[in-house]
User: What shape does this take?
Amino acid sequence: RLFARFLLNFLGFIFWGTAAALAFGGVWWILMCKDYGYLYQEFFLPLPGCLAVVAAIILLPTGVLAISVSAKCSRYKQGTLMYLLLVLLCLEMSLAVLAQIYSIWMASELKSSIGYLVYHYNGTHSQAPGNSTMDVVQRKLQCCGAQNYTDWLKETAASWHLPAEKAYVPESCCKEEYFHCRGDLGHLEQFFQEGCLKKLEDQLHFVMLYMFWCCIVVSVLEMLAGVSNGILMRHQTFHNLRFL
Assistant: This one.
């Protein structure tokens, strides 16, 4: 019983730290959706981030309750703590499953989206709808093309009506320090050569993996807290169990 009190008190403080970690992951994902949402049309894209933020908010009072119960047992506080732990466990398991699904689904969607933007890029009309999106992605990620800069060779030669040997890459591939860069293939050092697809996939995969492991770790801690609370409840005399 003494160990259960100590563990519950310790876990109460840990919950505050994990709340910060979950909130960080959730906000990070929401900001990524804001930055790259134009690559996807689905309105539910920020859902994992929202769930992570909600779970983080609920974790704060849960931590306070865990510390309070460890200091002085109260049947109402113990019952409320059990409810909160159950809600959090459901939220985090849902989030962990969503993170895995999104990681696979978004990689597939991303490949087709970037491929579409490269294929429909029109060098003769800089204001074409697809152009601005691809230009923004390339400038933001400091990349060029889908797989690498060679993706532009046949595409620009066809859409800009240039001979293959005179093909250019878009100016959005140029490095900032080269002010006079025009995407000329004779000056490879002036533009980024790494593809955008891998950079985006790595970012998305890392954030999803971060949130997945946060959920797994927090779920294990919550189960430990539930067991500790259950031990204390066993030794507590309850005259009225309706609160459960």
About this structure: Residues 75-119 form the longest helix (45 residues). Residues 1-119+207-242 form one domain. The CA atoms of residues 147 and 195 lie 4 Å apart. The helical segments are 2-36, 47-71, 75-119, 129-141, 151-159, 196-234.
